[in-house]
Amino acid sequence: MLTGAAITALAVTAGPAHGAPAPRHPTAQAAASAKAPGGVVFGGITPQSWPVVVALNRARNRVDRVAIGLDVTCTSGDSFGTNDGFQKLKLSKRGRFTTTYGPQRIDAGGVPADVESKVVGRMSSDRGSMRGVWSLKITIYEPTGTTALDTCDSGLVRWTATQ
Fold first, then answer.
1. 11: closest CA among 100, 156, 138, 102?
2. Cα dist. 55→18, 33, 40, 92, 139 in Å?
């Protein structure tokens, strides 16, 4: 079982960049300080009471940014909240997008962990809202990185965002 400090380190590290450089997956600081999008923005609150935001470019053919807050529950009984996000995702002509991340090994305060996430979304036919599902899974290992100690999972979180 992880200590409170390890859970805190994991929650901070498992945010949008998941500790690894990935151009479509911003760090929390970069996402917070990025300039306002030039296109349309959709927003909502998830069933877990976290925000979800989808920002499209002006041409509405790309998701400039999509971000969400998630509750994550571990097999050990621990739980924590974290955020996740992606950048620059192609929006199909039918208004759909999907992407995955990982599994990617990170160092969460001296604790090795594999992080993986997936988002699937689509725009409504009237183009006034978006909806989809998001999942985040973190597998935590003992210090040598070979034996899994805990698995933390958001499950499938359904989201809806409107203009």
1. 138
2. 21, 15, 6, 15, 30
* Type of residue found at 41: V
DSSP codes, 120-134: EEEE-TTSSEEEEEE
Tokens 């090795």 map to which residue? 112
Quick: pLDDT tens for 95-140. 999 999 999 999 988 899 999 999 999 999 999 999 999 999 999 9
Q: Where are the domains of the chain?
A: 4-162
Q: Give Cα separations from 144 to 9, 10, 47 (angstroms).
A: 18, 17, 37
Percent of the chain with pLDDT over 90: 71
User: Is 70:136 a contact under the CB 8 Å cutoff?
Assistant: yes
121 contacts 141 by C-beta, under 8 angstroms? no
Predicted local distance difference test score (pLDDT) of residue 108: 84
Higher pLDDT, 7 or 163: 163
Least confident range of 12-16, 20-24, 29-33 = 20-24
**What does the alpha-carbon distance between residue 93 and residue 32 come to, in Å, rounded to a whole number?**
29
What is the distance between the alpha carbons of residues 24 and 10, in angstroms, rounded to a whole number? 21
